[in-house]
Write a structure and sequence with these properties.
2 domains, about 35% helix
């Protein structure tokens, strides 16, 4: 696996730790269960902390603790399960999370564009994915019909702007 962050392949400094493993010295990503059981110790430790949420674990469970996490990794268990799209959007839009939102698990090329739109800025991908493949995937659409966390103007807002400009031009 490799990590694409903000469109570039980067070294992954994070270690995902199982509930039974000892925490490493450096940056560690833990499960929601471990967070719930060892919260005080995790907050007190040196090193960056991340959390991995499984598909059925909603961000509302950590919303009041987001300041403790440098990474929130959202799991895609199978291609048909897209809850992580909604969770990424909630983290960005409702909870104002500014840290890294990472897609992990069954991360597919066909979904890269939509992942970026809803707020993912890091994707764990198979080794054969290159930065060019990533750029091609996220450049595959010119216009968007719905507003999203990426703040790109929607088709409706573009139409409204064109109509307003036409009215202004007509009035002058």
């Amino acid at each position: 696996m490799q990590l694409i962050k903000n469109g570039k392949i980067v070294a992954d400094e994070w270690t995902t730790v199982s509930d039974e493993d000892t925490l490493p010295e450096g940056p560690a990503i833990v499960s929601l269960d471990r967070w719930k059981n060892d919260q005080e110790a995790l907050i007190a430790r040196d090193g960056k902390l991340g959390i991995r949420l499984k598909s059925g674990e909603e961000p509302s469970q950590i919303a009041e603790h987001l300041q403790h996490f440098d990474v929130v990794a959202l799991e895609f268990p199978i291609y048909r399960n897209g809850r992580a799209f909604s969770y990424a959007n909630l983290l960005r839009e409702r909870y104002g999370y500014k840290g890294e939102v990472r897609a992990v698990g069954n991360v597919l090329r066909d979904q890269f564009y939509f992942m970026v739109r809803v707020g993912f800025d890091a994707l764990e991908v198979r080794d054969e994915i290159t930065p060019q493949i990533f750029q091609d995937a996220i450049g595959s659409f010119t216009y968007d019909y719905q507003p999203s966390a990426d703040n790109k103007p929607s088709v409706l807002s573009l139409r409204q702007r064109l109509a307003a400009n036409a009215m202004t031009a007509k009035a002058s």
